[in-house]
Every structure is written in C-alpha cells, then in structure tokens.
Amino acid sequence: MKLNIAVLQGDGIGPEVTAQAVKVLKAVAMEFNHIFTFQKALVGASAIDKTGNPLPEETISICKKADAVLFGAIGDTKYDEDPDAKIRPEQGLLGIRKELGLYTNIRPIIAYEDLLNKSSLKVKQIKDTNILIYRELTGGIYFGDRYLSDDGNIASDVCKYERFEIERIAHLAFKAALSRKRKLTLVDKANVLESSRLWRRVVKEIAPQYPNVKVNFMYIDNAAMELIIHPRQFDVILTENMFGDILSEEASVIVGSIGLLASASIGDKHAMFEPIHGAYAKAANRGVANPIASILSAAMLLDHFGLYEEAALVREGVDKSLKLHITTPDLNNKYDNITTTKVGDFIEDFIQNPDETNLN
Amino acid sequence: MKLNIAVLQGDGIGPEVTAQAVKVLKAVAMEFNHIFTFQKALVGASAIDKTGNPLPEETISICKKADAVLFGAIGDTKYDEDPDAKIRPEQGLLGIRKELGLYTNIRPIIAYEDLLNKSSLKVKQIKDTNILIYRELTGGIYFGDRYLSDDGNIASDVCKYERFEIERIAHLAFKAALSRKRKLTLVDKANVLESSRLWRRVVKEIAPQYPNVKVNFMYIDNAAMELIIHPRQFDVILTENMFGDILSEEASVIVGSIGLLASASIGDKHAMFEPIHGAYAKAANRGVANPIASILSAAMLLDHFGLYEEAALVREGVDKSLKLHITTPDLNNKYDNITTTKVGDFIEDFIQNPDETNLN
Ligand SMILES: CC(C)[C@H](C(=O)O)[C@@H](O)C(=O)O
Ligand SMILES: CC(C)[C@H](C(=O)O)[C@@H](O)C(=O)O
C-alpha cells in the first residue's frame, strides 16, 4: 500500500515522540512492502515562532492532500501564562481538527496486564478494563461563539450542537460497541444543559437501530467518579467535546501513564492520529518523553487503512517493551537509562525481527 | 444562640439523611443551650408532585426568612430519562441557589485515616490529602441562556462570567488558603475558553493582595488526572461552576464514599448546607443511605455561625463512628446491620455523652 503521511510534530516533546512513531512506520513499510512517504509541516507554537500563524495555509494544504496526519503535541507555557495572547498554539490543533472535519476522536483506555501496579488505583479495581471513548471533536463549547466585552469585564462561550453532529458520531460509537461488549454509555449533563438533552434525545432515537447494544446514560459528574470506582462497567463511552477531553485525560490514571494513550481523529475525508498527552515543554529534549502514545497512534493509523497485521505487530512490540521494562522513566523503576529513542529503537527492532528482539 | 433553620429534604434519600442531621443539631442545641428551630419546606420532585413547582414561592420565602438552610437532595429517574420534561427537580436546587445568592460552594475533601483502605486509590496515594474546593455556584453554563430551535435540531447553552462574580469568590478562596497551606490552584480551560481566560486574568490581578498565597493554574483535563495521581499537591482549588461539579464528585474517590462529602453554599445574606451526593431514588427507604455527608453539612452550618466547639464535637462523633465501623453498607464490611438511623443515633448519643459512647 502507498500512504502519504503528513507529520505535524508541533511543540515540546512532540518532535521526539513523533520521530519514534515515524521510525516504527518506516520499519513496518520495509517489512511489509508498503510505500509510506512522510511530509513534515508546521503547527502550534513552533509555527507561530516561524510564521506568526499557529496553522499556516501550507500545513492545511499538506494535510488535505495527505492520506493521513500524524500529530505530535502543541502548547507552550508562555501562552498558558498569558490570558491576553490573541494568537495561541491551541488554535493550530483546533483549526486542523475543524479544517479536516475530524468529528470523531477515539481514545482507547486499556489496563495493560504488565502495568497494573503502575496505576494510582488498586490493581483489583482496574484489571481487565477496556474502554473506548468516542469524543465529539469539532463542536460544542470548543467551537461556539466567544465573547469578551470591550471593558474586559464580561466573557462568554457558547456550547452548541446540531442534530447531525450528534448522529454521525453516535452511529460510529454504536457500531464500535457492536464489535465489543455491546454497551454504550452516553455521558452528558442533561439535568442542566439543553445541549445535553439534545444528545440524550438523539441517542435515544438512534438506539432502536442497534437493538443488540445496551444503552445507558450518565451525568458527567457521576461519570468522573464511576470511571475510577467501577471502570469495568464501561465499554464504549460516547460524549461531547469538553466532557470527552476531561474524562479521557482522567482515564489515563487507569492505564498508569498518560504517555500511553493514543487516539484517532476521524472525519468523512480525513484522519489524524495523535497522542492524547500535551507538549510538556519542561520534558522536551531530555530523552524522557514516552513515545508509546505516539507509536500506538501510528498503530491506529495502520488499522484505519486495514493494515491489521501490521498494527498488531506494532502493538506486540509495545507489549514486549512494557514486559521487558524498556520504558521511559514515567513507567520505569527498574532501569533508569531508557530514553525516548531507545524505546523507539526497541520497537523498530522488534518489527524487523519479532522473534529475537531483547534488550540491547 | 437562636437559629431558625429551613429544612429542604427533597427527594430520594434526602429525607432520611436530613432527618439524621436534624437529630444531631437538636442534640447539639440541647447540650450547648442553643435554641434551634426547624421549618420544613418542599423542593424538587416531591414539590412537583405536590404543587407542580420544583421551587414553590412558599419555600423561597421560608428560606429567605431562615438563618440557614439544610438541604437534602433532589432528582428522580423519571425526569432523568425524559429529556423533554419542561419542569425538572433540578430547577428547585438551581433556583434556590440563585434566589439566595449562594455564589460560593465549599467542598472539603479529606482522606480520613480510618477509611484510607476504602478508597479505590492506593493508600500511599491519598494519605493526608486535605483539599478545599471553592466552586462558583450561581454563574457559568448553569445559569447562562439556553436555546432549543423550534424543530428541535439545534441546542445551545451559554457559559458566561462577569468580573465581579469571579472576584467575590476568589477573595474568599484566597482567604481560606491563608489559614491553610497557602496554596491556591485555579482550574480552568484557558487554552480554549474566553470565560476561563477572564477567570485567569482576574485571579492574577487579585493575587498580589495575598502575597503569602502561592497561586498556580491548571487546565481542567489535567486537573482531573492530577487529582487522582497527586492529590496532596492541592490545598485550595478555585474553579467555575461546571468544573467544580465534576472535580468535586470525582474527588469523592479519595475519601472512599460520596456519602461522606459535605458542602456549604454561601452568599452575602444567606447560607445553605448540603451533601454533594444526589437523591439515589433506588436507595431510598431502605436504611442504607449514608447520613454522614448530611451530618457533616450540619457541622459546616455550626462553623458558619461561629459554633466551633459544637462543630468539632459533631466531627468527633463522625470520626468515632468511622473508627468503630458504625457506618452504612457503602463503608462497612464488618457489620451488615447498621442503618441510616443507627448512624444518626450513635452520633446523637456521642454528643450527649462524648466519653461513653460505644456501639449499642
Ligand atoms: C490542547 C487542547 C486544546 C486539547 C483539547 O482540549 O482538545 C487537548 O487537551 C486534547 O485533549 O487533545
Ligand atoms: C443535581 C445537580 C443539578 C447538581 C449540580 O450539578 O450542581 C449536583 O450535581 C451538585 O453537585 O450539587
């Protein structure tokens, strides 16, 4: 297969972790006789530094022409600390999601057997947890009108949803549930929000088309608690943009490190693959950034194009790295010298030679 | 002291747990020679059933005349499952918060030594956690304009804040931090929301007035994770209405049961005290509801009127009940016959005779 992949490394640890995912994809191409080409483009704070724009036109056009986008991370403390900044790195990420119409963000939350003891949660609590979060990604309060009064004393944001925005992701979530434990939980705040009541209404209307999927509804406050005390009750979680942002980062505590969480952002024409973690400027260029989230995002990319065997091999490589403690410091209390690159090298080696790879 | 307390029991387990708090307050009045009078009023689903209105005028007027309000819980599954219901129990709770101007909701999160092993989190993770959440309670998306298009296909909610709404609660939070570990964390989503940027700006402006308080800023998604992996880093958390709702219910996992979390809702003229848990219709009238959250809310009421010794005695009673396993099933794996009433009786006995109380 020929795939033209746009690589948006972004800021902070973005370039380092993305480099490992690219390395792994190159090894996959080599072993399976695919032709993957990679084209870099600017986004985020680094794009602002070079062009004044967090999402240059050229980046948009490279992404639109590509078969898929591999995304690193964006953000910089200098903008976080300045609420008055008019141009912000996040506009690059939100902009590309919108430009490519990536309305469905899929975030798997899997408690790896080998990492159970790394979690803040008790092992018996999280064992066998396997959740797929379907987060709506191009609507809600992320993209509603914003307002700041001239005197700077009043500010507002609008959370708006239209029926079609809910329907299209809901169908994808129901279909995903069909091939899993056939349970779908809609998380909302329907006891307060009109937009949440629309979500609840639409999901109730669609549900009869999937008679084999059991649907339930949960308020976001309650879900934030239930996710920790009874994570195994969840199969597919469907939710709007902001609640999905909060729940999925919270869910990282189940997995043991946010450095493990991958995601796929899917639209009708385009697809982008990105770790759920941020840019962590402080950790950049120190070799400590965990590349697994980016590598697992690459595996989701392979799946997306039907390259299931390839994706499975990448995941096997990841599993083996975890089992052998070839992991960055966030997960490692056995070896203290395993760098970002070393993890990438190990998984690359594994793909080239699955039966022989060991720590070298 | 003379106190006239309005009692809004509400729905589900509300009446049962509130009855225990009233019992405890009566014991306090007796032992300390105070005169507490109690006046019941309708709210929530039970008020809808009887009057068609989740917040009858009479209830508002009783609350406005009272020195304080003791609130139970509201909500009913029949409304949760009907997104089209125009009249909803939650309007009673949101209405009374607004009518009384209760803009500051204070939610203490304390890891009780005797309950450390009840948490889903590892003991070493949560030991010594002591957080005070300051949740804004009368603004934001809870009270912004709502819209539903005539064809039912578009819905929206507005999250709006004005400077004065942020200032007044921020000052209270800073003052609270001064008498604690002198750390204040503002939780927001300033990388996306205009209203969050206003919060950040105002808190930055106020901060120099409290030079002894260390201020930091955290995005809500990150905070939802940090609360679980590093809870001890927090002292006072200040946040807007919706984020406070989510974070405080999530934080219950640290304490071991949501049935332990009390809150105080304070305004310039009025004050209301309520558990953070909901109505749990399914648990109602079975004697299993944990009354501690309501009893600790009563302790916050006593504190509010400067009755510190009285409040401390109530808390001692609660501590003793936890130590002796006089607790409802959510916390008890030793005795299986401790009912809601029995917990209330035990704490009442303790107040009447602090040195001799034991399980009877
Ligand atoms: C960086 C930020 C705008 C982004 C979001 O909130 O969507 C991030 O937290 C994420 O989850 O991808
Ligand atoms: C019942 C509901 C409207 C309420 C809220 O969201 O404020 C509750 O969850 C709470 O936290 O007091």
TrEMBL record, chains A, B:
Enzyme Commission no: 1.1.1.85
SMART domains: Iso_dh
Ranges of residues in domain Isopropylmalate dehydrogenase-like: 4-347
Top-level enzyme category: oxidoreductase
GO molecular function: 3-isopropylmalate dehydrogenase activity; metal ion binding
Gene Ontology terms describing biological process: L-leucine biosynthetic process
Stored Gene3D superfamilies: Isopropylmalate Dehydrogenase
Domain of life: Bacteria
GO cellular component, one term: cytosol
Entry keyword Transit peptide: no
Keywords: Amino-acid biosynthesis, Branched-chain amino acid biosynthesis, Leucine biosynthesis, Magnesium, Manganese, Metal-binding, NAD, Oxidoreductase
Cofactors (names): Mg(2+); Mn(2+)
Protein family (similarity comment): Belongs to the isocitrate and isopropylmalate dehydrogenases family. LeuB type 1 subfamily.
Cross-referenced PANTHER family: 3-ISOPROPYLMALATE DEHYDROGENASE
Subunit organization: Homodimer.
Record protein name field: 3-isopropylmalate dehydrogenase
Source organism per UniProt: Algibacter marinivivus
